[in-house]
Amino acid sequence: MAETDPKSVQDLTAVVNWKETIAVTRIDDLEKNIADLMTQAGVEEIEGGENKVKEGGEAS
């Protein structure tokens, strides 16, 4: 067993919560980056998760 492994239920809970927080933060960052790229590409999201090119934009 590695020295950094949780030794108690409380330690395990803290590690899981910490990893969840990191994962959520990374997902939020990814969603923001995708939205920024879609804006740069001139694509907007419409209901149903479909995308369409804005007027004057180009599909790539």
From TrEMBL:
Key words of the record: Stress response
Taxonomy, superkingdom: Eukaryota
Protein's name in the database: Heat shock factor-binding protein 1
Annotated source species: Triplophysa rosa (Cave loach)
Taxonomic lineage: Eukaryota, Metazoa, Chordata, Craniata, Vertebrata
